[in-house]
Specification:
mainly alpha; 3 helices; 76% helix; 0% strand; rod-shaped
Length: 121
């Protein structure tokens, strides 16, 4: 990710925008990575339901309802875990970059108002 902003021809503002894009892309990678555990969750649910002893056998409807409801809760939990993980490790840096981008945009706008060259930004 950081190798992409090493291009000396890019300006600071463009580099920071590119870095923000990379962070957003990594956020999507985290969500995808967490959701890739779904097949393992389904297999584990099937194994647990099939091999745990029950007082009376579960009907197909009860087994399907249990699997689907547990899967829905598990998916939501994985999604929340991925969001939390990203926020803990990256949110501070994303906020810093957003603040820098906002400050640079203000400077750029001020320079445009005064008809000065903003090429260095």
């Amino acid at each position: 990710m950081y190798n992409n902003i090493g291009n000396p021809m890019m300006k600071t503002f463009d580099s920071l925008k590119d870095l923000m894009y990379q962070f957003e892309l990594n956020k999507q990678y985290y969500l995808s990575f967490m959701l890739s555990f779904v097949p393992f969750l389904v297999c584990e649910l099937i194994i647990v339901i099939e091999f745990l002893p029950h007082r009376k056998p579960l009907s197909d409807f009860q087994a399907a309802t249990t699997i689907i409801s547990t899967l829905a809760v598990g998916l939501f939990g994985l999604f929340l875990l991925a969001k939390y993980w990203y926020r803990i490790f990256y949110r501070k840096y994303v906020n810093q970059i957003e603040n820098l981008l906002n400050e640079l945009q203000k400077v750029k706008n001020i320079l445009k108002m005064h008809n000065e060259d903003a090429a260095f930004i």
